[in-house]
Each structure stands twice: as C-alpha cells, then as structure tokens.
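Task 17 of the worksheet. Students: predict the tertiary structure of the chain below and write it out as structure tokens. Keep your answer in the requested format; marks are given for formatting as well as content.
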Amino acid sequence: MEVKRVYRIENKDINIGFWYNSDGTPSGLAQKLGTTNKDMPMPYDKAKYTSHTGEPYICAAPSLEALLHWFGREDFEILTREGFKLHLYEVINCIEDGPQTLFLRSQVLSDTVLSDEAMYGVKQVIVVRKDLIKGEHAVRRGKMMAQACHASLGSFLRWQTREMVTTIPGGALEPGQRYQRLHFEFMLGSPFDLWLNGLFTKVCVYVDGEKELRALYELAQNDELFPIPIPCSLITDSGLTEFHGVPTVTCLGLGPWFSRDLDKLTGNLPLL
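Model answer:
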C-alpha cells in the first residue's frame, strides 16, 4: 500500500470548494475573495471527479511547490483571514491528474494542519566568508566547498538526539559492544519534515568577513526574534591544511527552517 503526501488549502467550516461545490456547480468563492487565481480556467468533469462509489474526489497538490501553481502566497494571506488552513494529508489510492492529485476522504490516513509559515517554503542557507575566497590570500575552492558541506551537515544534525547503547545477545553485533545510536524525531509538518520530504532546497550566500558571520549566528539564536531557535552550525576550520595553522571561522549553516524566518536573517545577502 503506497502512502502519498498531498497538500490542500481548505476551510472545513464551510461546505463549498474554492472553485466548485461537491456537486460540480461553481462555488464563486475565488471571485468573491478576489484572489489572483480567480480567472484561472478550471474545467470540471463530473465523471472524472467522482469515484465508482459516488464519492467525490478532492483536489490537492503533490508538493508545497506545486501548490503555488494554484495559489500565490498573497492569496494564502487572504484565505487565512477567511479561516482557510494549509493541510498535509497522507492518503492511499490517489490519482495523479496533471499538476494535481485526486484523493477520497475515505482514503485519508492522517490530516495535519501546517503552520502558516510552511506556505512560504522551507530551506537551508549556507553563509560563507567572502574574504576567504577572494584576493591574494584566498584559499582553495575545494577547501571552501568542504567547509560549506560541514555547515550544511552540522546544521542538519541539530535535529538529532544521541544515546549510548550496549549490544545484547541475539543481535547482528557482538554482545557487550558500546555504540552510539542517532535518532531523528520530528513532527509531521515540521520544517525538518517538509525539507526532508520536499526539494532539499539549499541557498549559498556570503558576507564580507568573520564579524558579520558571527553576528548572524547570534541573531539566529536570539529568542526575542525567534522564540523557537533556528538550528544552526558555525564552522571553525582547524587550520591543518590552510590558514597557516590558525583555527578559522569559515561558514555558517542555517536550517532547514521556514524560509520567511531565514529571509529575515539572510534575505539581503548576495548569492555566492
């Protein structure tokens, strides 16, 4: 049984769809709310949108990115004021129909209401020191690529928990061995979940030097700006192969986290 994740914007308190009612008649809701997609052609084929049991199919998007084909982010702000929510459904026996996915309410395994921030996407941002890659004292590009990888992985691993475990008889490993077990526990619809099961979006930007990099690191952990701290990792190279043996701060990894929060920190930084 294949389980698929689909995304849908809806208001369950009203018994009408955004373009059509369940019986196929136009609802007029898009025109009433004046969203940017109000004139999008949406032909309706009752035979296609009704199952053999007579239950109507529900339209959804296969990803958050695909959802933006139907709704602009400005539309979502209008819809939120009208009581609409962004839902993540886990469903079985769905049908792929071009840019949309069709499913039946009776085939829903779970329904999670996502944070409004999810509509703006999730990503990871890697911030690099420009002064280390430009000029006469620039380090090798491969070195800085490795540092950026450290920042990405280091920030990613902030989501993990660790525990020491002793093996017991009957397992694949020799009894009495000590090893470290890593866990990734996250809620459905969390930034980590949406990123891991989405597009793995990464963006690389730069700052002029160490002072700016450390300032971003401090801001990311400021609980007044972000009540839930943004996962981040400030990378210091040991200096064994570059930097003349001096440990040197090189990169900063931020996220995966909601794009709108990350943009508050790095939205004005130039792309690398």
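Marker's comment: Residues 122-266 form a domain with the Bit1 fold (CATH 3.40.1490.10). Residues 20 and 26 are 4 Å apart (CA to CA).
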